[in-house]
Structures are given as structure tokens and as C-alpha cells.
Design goal:
Blueprint: H1 2-24, H2 26-41, H3 53-80, H4 85-102, E1 110-111, H5 114-124, H6 133-155, H7 167-184, H8 186-190, H9 200-210, H10 216-235, H11 241-255, H12 283-315, H13 321-336, E2 344-345, H14 347-355, H15 362-378, H16 387-401, H17 404-413, H18 415-430, H19 433-452, E3 456-462, E4 471-474, E5 489-495, H20 500-516, E6 522-529, H21 535-550, E7 555-558, H22 562-570, H23 573-577, E8 582-583, H24 586-593, H25 599-604, H26 622-635
Parallel strand pairs: 5-6, 6-7, 7-8
Antiparallel strand pairs: 1-2, 3-4, 3-5
Amino acid sequence: MMLLRTLNLLILSLGQDIKMSEEAHPWRERGRQFQGYLNELFYFPTWVKSINMHTMRNDMIAGLTGATLVLPQGVAFAAIAGLPPEYGFYTAIVTAIVAALCGSSLHAVSGPTTAISALVFVSLVGSFEPGTDSYISAAITLAFLVGIYQLVLGIARLGGMVDFVSHSVMTGFMTGAALLIALSQVRHALGVEIPRPDELVEFTVGLYEKFPQVNPYSVGIAAFAFFVGIGIKKWRPLWPNYLIALAAATGISIWLSGQATEVATVGAIESVTPKFVLPDFTLGSLRDLSSAAFAIAMVGLLEAMSVARAIGLKSGQMVDNNREFLGQGASNVVGSFFQCYPGSASFTRSGVNYEAGAQTPLSAVFAAFFLFLILLLVAPWFAYVPIPAMAGVIILVAWRLVDLQEIKHIFTTSASETIIACVTFFSALLINLEFAIYAGVLLSLGLFLNSTSKPSIGIGVPDPNSKRRTFSGSGIGSGNETLPECPQLMIARLDGPLYFGSVEYLRKQFRRFEIERKNQTNMIFIVKGIGEIDMPGADLLIEEANRRRRRGGSFHLQTKTPKTISKLARFKVIKELGREYIHLSKGDAIAEAVPTLDKSICATCTKRIFFECEAQPKPVPEEIKEQMHEAKSEASPTNVQPAPKLSAE
């Protein structure tokens, strides 16, 4: 007991000692914190020291593999974004290099992605005509704003906030985006002009009206590219299926004499060399694009972190969230000065990069370099690539974005995650992708806060089969309703956070205890499983202690974490309750609480569930109670016979 008391006092005084130390040298402490903050954000990458001839060789092989993969993707993703093909290549070259050198992941490869490309398109298509100079300028400015947002979040060290966004948000978003991407390519695959799929009613009506005008050659080429891509992925998974599908469909188109069949082609690429061009910094442009940029920035960060963590689980690398934020932000800001539109880490290219044996981020640099060399050779051939072939490849990309296994897993395991995924999906389909992200994130955070606002409170009693302080649940629904409880003292345990969001719920639980257990005026409140405590939570503890004191009882608090004790001291809980009511163990709390119980009730109690009850007055046996009652009855005035009257004689 004395050891527990001493340890209690040491922990309680620890917070005060640290506080006095910080007050003695505030500027020195802040200087050390700021220096550590800068070192954390802008450290020199450690992977540079591991570079040797072996890693260089592996990185070059992985880079060459990635370059052949991104060649058709650059054209396809640029088409999804409503941009000429060369802008997809610019993003695949510049963004990949900067993100690799500034991020923390050893294997993640950045550049144009399906989801970001779709977001760029839906963000700009309402105000600009795709492919025009104003549209291209807005897309580049969008990259600058996206990078600024990501840099700010990284500098503020908010990398952990991605953990609060449900994975179901990304599942619903990717599914909705995949469907919209596939529908957007229907007009190219059919060879007819129909409305965009963001207006589903007009799209459906237009498709019905223009269906008799469908070009069978376009449909055949698109279907051929689609099924060739599927076949290559199934039978030769290591081959670049998109590139082979595009080349095969182009060959079929040339054999059919594409011009004679009225099949449109991609056309010549003007230049494969990115040029230094300033984004549009006019106030009106920045203001109009700021909202869309924030949504794209969030999706880009979620996508990048998902990729980096997934690859990190395979490679065993711990990914630095804040560093990844900075890497993505820097890649988009720098890329915006070299004609790039927003990019992020790619699931496909990152996975291929790792499987190809990449050792360091130099593999992404080599991939960009090899892509540039390949483009110098094959760029003229893009003039012969049929647009329906591109449509078939893009539809294949969209089809692979739909994760049916994950959707089934969500629907069969969690009702709340199912709601989040459905709301995000239908928002993307019926409203727009930008709103879908906001809706999904807000809903997931709302459901999270709702769950944390109702923490679990369990009533515990000693396990009669255990010789130690092992407690089992009691009360309705616990499965141990028959276990005896002390008539004066209840033991409750909180599992969850004690913060402003859960205060009202806990206050109602305390009032319920007061009504249902009105004789148990004493309480031991265990906060061992607590996640967090703030000032409103601390005020609730003080309030409950005062209420029980007014009823003639007591309120004991048990916790053993130094962080919680430090906060209790800072919020004046220890001062208001008194140190004798703060305990490090259940045994200490029970040892203090039991001797203060009403002795007259203890004398008649037969429960005796605590070890300390042995020292309390013993209950009087029933037979002795009956004898005492009979003795009292015989001695009462009603049982005394009247004395005989004496005569005068």
C-alpha cells in the first residue's frame, strides 16, 4: 500500500516538474522544438547512401519497365482530363521526378492518374471547352493550387488526418469515377456525338437517339482493344497490356484504312519536351479554381498515401505521411511551371515498379528519362492511333478500377461503411465527383464522431472464482446479472474518450445510475481504457464527484497512465477531488472506499464481495435476530402482567 502511495505521488508530481522546467527556459525549449520540426520536414533522404552499382542496375530495369507502361497511360489519362496527349507525358515526366526525390516512399511512382484526371475534367468542363488554350491554362493553374494546398498540409504536419477518412469513401469514389470514365468514352467507341455522362438523363436520351448512327468500325476497334488488353493481362500479366492493346488496335485500323472508314485518330503530338511556362496567377482564376483544387488535393493525398502504404507493407518500409504530403505538393507546384496538370501516385505503376525490382526512388527518375527517349522515337506514330482504340483502353482502365471484392466485403461486414460508400458513389454519379469527396469525408467523420460520442460504460464486480482483483461485467445484458454487488459501492469502467462530444451522453448515464442505483451513493470510476480527456470531460468528473458528496457518498477515480494523470492535474480534477480519491489501481481504490461506507448497512450486508469486507462488522445470523426480537417482545410493557391489588385489610 505504501509503495502504491509513493508511486502515486511521484506520477502526480511529474507533470508539475515538467511544467516548471518548460517555464524556466521557454525560448530554449521552443527553439529545440522548431529545430526538430525543420529536421523532420526537410531531412536529407537516407536512401542516397544505399546507392551502388547493384541498386542502379535494378532501378534502371524497373525504370524501363515503367516507361513502357506509362506510354499508353499518358495518352489515355490526358484524354480523360480533356487535354492533348503531350500533357499526360509532361505530367508523367516532371511530376514523377520531383515526387520521387522529395517524398519518403522508395517505390511509389507519381504522375497522371485516372481519378485525378477525371476530377480535373469535371472541375473544368463546365467553364471551359476541353482541349482549348483556356482549358489547358486552367488545368495547369489547378496543378499549382493543388500543390500549394498539399504543401500547406504537409508543413502543418497534418499527414495523420488521412487516417480519419474511411476507406469506403475511396471505394465509392473510385467506383463512381470509373463508371463516369467508361460512360465518357462511349461516344468515342460508338463514333457518334452524344452529351456528356455528368447529365445522365440527357446522356441516355442522346444515346437512344444517336444509336442508329453508330459506326461499326469504331465499335469493332474499341472492342478489339478492350479484349486484347484483357487477354494480355490474363495470359501474360507481366507484359504491358495497355501498350500491346493500343498497338494491335492501331494495326487493325491501318489495315482497315481508317480514313476510309471515318475512324478518327489521335493526331500528331506537337512536342514531347515540357517547357517552362508560368501558370495563370490572376486573382479571378485562382479564386474560381480554389474549391476544385482543394478536392483534388485531398483525393491526390489519399491516393498517394494508399499507394505508399500498400507498397510499404510489402517492402517493410515505414512511410512518413507528412513527407509524402510535401513530396506530392512539391511535384504539383514544380510541375505547374512545366505544363503539367495535377498528378498523384499511381497504383499500377507503383506496383509494377516494386515487382520489377526497384531499390530506390531513382527508378522513377529513370522511368521518366526512358519515357522521354521513347517519345522522341515513337511520337510521330501517335498520328495513326485511332480514337476508338484509346476509348477501348480507357474503358478497360475504368473497368479495372472497380474492386468487386472490396465492395462485397464492405456490404457484408459494416452497415455504416456501406452507407458511406453508397452516398459517395451516388453523389459522384448524380451530382459531381468534387461534391462526392466532400460528402463521403463529412459523412465518415460524422459517423466516427457519433460512435466516439457514445463510449461504453461497464459495471464491474469481483469474480467469485478468482483470488485476484479480477472483475467481471454485471448488469442487464452483461451475461453476469446474478453476480452480487455491493449495496453501497458501484464500480464503473469507461472504454472510450472523455471529451466534449461524449460529455452529454456520459452525464445521462450518471443520472441513470443515480435513479436505478440510488442506494449506491459511492462510485469507483475506472478510466483505464480512456482515449482522450479534455476540459469539458474533466468538468464532468468534478460535477459527478460533487453530486455524490451532496448525497452523502464519494467518487473515486482510478487511472494509471501518466498522460491522463497529467491532464487531470492541469484541469484541476486532482485538486477538486483530493489526492486521496485518485488511485493507480482498483485494489487501492477499493481499500480506500470500503472503510468509509455506512457501518450500519455493512453490519446487515451478506454480500461480502470485497477482501476488505472481512474487517467490517459481521452480519447478525437470522436465528439470533429472532431470539433478540423475541426477547425484546417479552421485555416490552405490553407483555408485563399487572401487579395484584392489595385489600385494605
